[in-house]
């Protein structure tokens, strides 16, 4: 019974994550006004996570339900590679987003003039090639470093308890997928906060406060409610950094401990729960980055309002020209009807 509930819960999370990431792509890409540099980096992150919700998580759910890998060794190799590739790629996108937001705040004129959509495309392609290069090492099967089915993780991956020079690869993967990104995020958002506060003091000491921008950055504005603005900035940082730490941190810690203690140190249930926490990332990240972006959040609310707002067919036009045109059309239709009756 517990397994059925877990499978249903995992499936709901996966479907919600897939729909959310697909909706973010549909929101950003068709609209020119939303295709800013920051939002294009967000689109790259969203695309990476959408692939994970479609090609990784469903197979892990099936494997968890059946307690065995049903899709062959070749596909297991592909799944292990894809999981590692997407994990590194999404973490790198999150790092790049934090760096981009800092420089857009510290040097807004230079950033707007020198960072274009071409740079975003180049950085995204480089990120994917870089991630694929490092994720491909276990495909070579070097002395046991190979993607295999790991029951405790309900999926395919490489063993973290091989001794020798493999420690270099282990810690590089841990650095790329978690440690380096965590350090970059904390540093860049702290620097952003410092830059905004310094700018505020230079403009007008004592009457300036830090406010969150549309894309989650900070800027200096006239003071209205210092405690509220400070709380808002702290909540923003907590959500952005906390969502990443919660979804990726436990699995990274478990992998590092396993490299010392060996496989089987943790119970299978614990490892399964920690492994599936990684799959919360595609859902949580998309919600956090969209809801904290004022422009994207406004677009979402406008779309929802259009979808659920009941329109009255007899509603009077708001535009005076449309209103007069409606009166004229009604008058002409009545006149035509009268003419037809007289002719009969």
UniProtKB/TrEMBL annotation:
Annotated family: Belongs to the G-protein coupled receptor 1 family.
Mode of membrane association: Multi-pass membrane protein
Record-level Gene Ontology MF annotations: G protein-coupled receptor activity
Domain G-protein coupled receptors family 1 profile, chain residue ranges per copy: 20-289
GO cellular component: endosome; plasma membrane; receptor complex
Localization, UniProt: Cell membrane
Main location: membrane
Keyword vocabulary terms for this entry: Cell membrane, G-protein coupled receptor, Membrane, Receptor, Transducer, Transmembrane, Transmembrane helix
Record's signal peptide: none
Bilayer-spanning residue ranges: 6-28, 40-61, 81-99, 120-140, 168-190, 237-261, 273-292
Protein name: G-protein coupled receptors family 1 profile domain-containing protein
Superkingdom of source: Eukaryota
């Amino acid at each position: 019974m517990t397994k059925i509930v877990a499978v249903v819960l995992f499936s709901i999370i996966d479907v919600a994550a897939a729909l959310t990431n697909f909706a973010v792509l549909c929101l950003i890409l068709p609209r020119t006004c939303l295709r800013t540099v920051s939002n294009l980096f967000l689109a790259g992150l969203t695309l990476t996570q959408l692939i994970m919700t479609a090609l990784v998580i469903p197979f892990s759910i099936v494997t968890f339900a059946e307690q065995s890998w049903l899709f062959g060794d070749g596909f297991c190799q592909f799944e292990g590679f894809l999981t590692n590739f997407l994990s590194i790629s999404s973490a790198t996108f999150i790092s790049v987003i934090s760096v981009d937001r800092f420089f857009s705040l510290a040097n807004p004129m230079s950033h707007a003039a020198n960072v274009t959509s071409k740079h975003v495309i180049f950085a995204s392609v480089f990120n994917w090639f870089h991630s694929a290069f490092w994720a491909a090492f276990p495909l070579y099967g070097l002395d046991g470093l190979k993607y295999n089915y790991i029951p405790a993780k309900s999926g395919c991956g490489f063993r973290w308890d091989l001794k020798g020079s493999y420690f270099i690869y282990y810690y590089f993967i841990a650095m790329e997928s978690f440690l380096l990104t965590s350090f970059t995020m904390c540093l860049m958002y702290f620097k952003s906060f410092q830059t905004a506060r310094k700018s505020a003091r230079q403009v007008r000491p004592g009457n300036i406060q830090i406010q969150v921008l549309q894309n989650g950055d900070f800027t200096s504005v006239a003071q209205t409610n210092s405690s509220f603005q400070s709380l808002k900035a702290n909540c923003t940082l907590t959500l952005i950094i906390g969502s990443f730490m919660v979804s990726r941190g436990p699995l990274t810690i478990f992998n590092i401990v396993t490299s010392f203690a060996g496989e089987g140190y943790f119970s299978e249930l614990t490892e399964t729960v920690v492994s599936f926490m990684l799959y919360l990332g595609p859902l949580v990240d998309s919600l956090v980055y969209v809801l904290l972006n004022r422009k994207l959040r406004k677009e979402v609310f406008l779309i929802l309002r259009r979808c659920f707002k009941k329109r009255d067919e007899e509603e009077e036009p708001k535009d005076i020209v449309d209103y007069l045109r409606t009166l004229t059309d009604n008058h002409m239709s009545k006149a035509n009807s009268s003419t037809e009756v007289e002719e009969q």
